[in-house]
Design goal:
Elements lengths: L1 E5 L2 E5 L7 H9 L9 H21 L4 H15 L18 H18 L12 H5 L5 H37 L4 E6 L2 E7 H24 L3 E2 L16 H13 L4 E2 L3 H6 L2 H27 L10 E2 L17 H25 L9 H25 L5 E2 L1 H9 L9 H4 L1 H14 L3 H8 L4 H7 L2 H4 L17
Parallel strand pairs: 5-6
Antiparallel strand pairs: 1-2, 3-4, 7-8
């Protein structure tokens, strides 16, 4: 152990640690979840420290030798070294001061080593005076949330675009298969299996578009606001230079925030992005729930599709195969809804010039992005691409739908069609057979009016627009 000192006094720190006394206090204070910060959150914070060193070297505020050492230390972290040094639990003191100091201390200690110094001496590079120069937790952490979310957006987009493409391909593959539609889980008018899958693809496209629209607000950076958004201790050229260097380091499209007080006060942009992820998750969960319904059986359910078998479904029932991938995706989506609820409550709970609940906001949004990305990839590759239609069962059920009487309403009227539907269910006779048996329509018109494929497109069955008038 080595002994370090901060404003609270001395404290022992593991001798081989790149982090220092303030990080060690956080480790002792917050043994909450056993989790460590998600890597994108660390990466974004290190981007900020590297950009700040470059900015202060540009302005001459930081000696080039020290700035270069901080940059070199940051590059080591960004290359994947020292990951084990970022140790503060996501559930920590408000605003993220512990996370910020963890990064400051690691970079300061490593920079000093690169300059020939020792860990824990903080000379010539100090974590507060040099690595954190002209910064505050209060402007770096909200900036890290924005950067880390934007950095993960590409992977999320790629996963959902691939899934969307696979669903659309199934829509084309299944376009000729007519099946029973269902509303309220009851018989409804026919629909093509391909129409259902095409609609699933369109739903994800709209959801992803909402996510991107919400992400655009994250591109406005409040870095340079320092303690309360006013920019005290910050050079006037700092925000623009930081934006320039952060764009170059991250490859992201970023903007200089025009109202840094507003960007510090409000977590609305992060909450809006989280809400868009929630909607995407809700739609995704509905889609996989539909798959679970359509695969139900195989002997006692509707059995309209076949999912790839990925694992045995029971430890006691031989041969049982469950919709395992959709079940996993449902659970992921439930977790995303919970994450968004946490983000919403935390976003509301900021007071005056700062939202101190930022650590849990950042953690939950990034967790949502990670599990949604992975779940969409697995659903695409291990489920959707291998879905097969059970055309025989689709044809079986659609002919037995009591809702087919709807196609007769323009010919015989709603009341007569409703009575026919009731008799079909009561007597166990197909609508088509009843129409023929009872002479409801001329024989030559039955197949035209009850053309199942035509019922799946806009138009009036049989071409007529109303029942024949009654009476004399």
């Amino acid at each position: 152990m080595r002994t370090e000192k901060d404003p609270l006094g001395p404290l022992d720190v593991p001798d081989d640690a790149l982090f220092g006394v303030q990080t060690q206090r956080a480790v002792l204070n917050f043994p909450i979840s056993g989790l460590r910060p998600l890597k994108p959150f660390v990466t974004a914070q290190v981007w900020i420290k590297k950009a700040a060193a470059l900015t202060h070297r540009d302005t001459g505020r930081l000696e080039a030798r020290l700035a270069d050492a901080i940059v070199a230390a940051a590059d080591e972290v960004l290359a994947g070294r020292h990951d084990d040094q970022f140790v503060v639990d996501p559930y920590q003191a408000g605003a993220g001061t512990s996370h910020n100091m963890n990064v400051n201390e690691v970079l300061a200690n490593r920079a000093n080593e690169l300059l020939g110094g020792k860990r824990g001496t903080y000379s010539p590079v100090h974590p507060n005076d040099h690595v954190n120069m002209a910064q505050s937790t209060n402007d770096t952490i909200p900036t890290s949330i924005r950067l880390s979310c934007l950095a993960q957006l590409g992977a999320l987009t790629s996963a959902f675009e691939s899934l969307q493409g696979s669903l659309a391909a199934k829509g084309r593959e299944f376009d000729g298969i007519v099946k029973a539609g269902r509303t309220h889980l009851q018989d409804a008018m026919p629909i093509r299996l391909g129409q259902e899958f095409t609609a699933y693809a369109g739903t994800l496209a709209r959801g992803l578009r909402r996510v991107h629209e919400a992400a655009d607000y994250l591109r406005d950076l409040g870095i340079g606001g320092s303690a309360v958004g006013t920019g005290v201790t910050v050079e006037p050229e700092y925000p623009a230079l930081m934006n320039k260097h952060l764009k170059a380091i991250s490859g992201l499209d970023l903007r200089v925030g025009q109202d840094r007080v507003q960007l510090m006060q409000s977590m609305g942009d992060a909450a809006g992005f989280s809400a868009a992820l929630r909607v995407l998750a809700l739609d995704l969960s509905k889609i996989v729930s539909d798959l679970r319904l359509m695969v139900m059986g195989p002997r006692t359910g509707i059995d309209e599709i076949k999912l790839p078998a990925v694992q045995p479904g029971s430890s006691i029932m031989p041969g049982k195969i469950n919709p395992s991938i959709p079940e996993m995706v449902n659970q992921v989506c439930f977790q995303v809804v919970g994450c968004d609820t946490t983000v919403s409550m935390a976003a509301e709970h900021g007071q005056l010039e700062l939202n101190v609940m930022m650590p849990v906001i950042g953690h939950n949004i990034l967790l949502s992005m990670r599990i949604l990305t992975n779940a969409a990839t697995v659903l695409d590759e291990r489920c959707v691409r291998g879905i097969e239609a059970n055309q025989a069962m689709c044809e079986y059920w659609v002919e037995r739908s009591a809702a087919l009487a709807t196609a007769l309403a323009p010919q015989i009227g709603y009341a007569a069609a409703a009575e026919l539907s009731k008799r079909s269910v009561k007597d166990g006779v197909l609508i088509r057979d009843l129409v023929r048996r009872d002479g409801v329509l001329p024989a030559a018109e039955v197949d035209e009016v009850l053309d199942l494929r035509k019922m799946t497109e806009i138009g009036v069955p049989g071409g007529k627009h109303g029942p024949a008038p009654s009476g004399g």
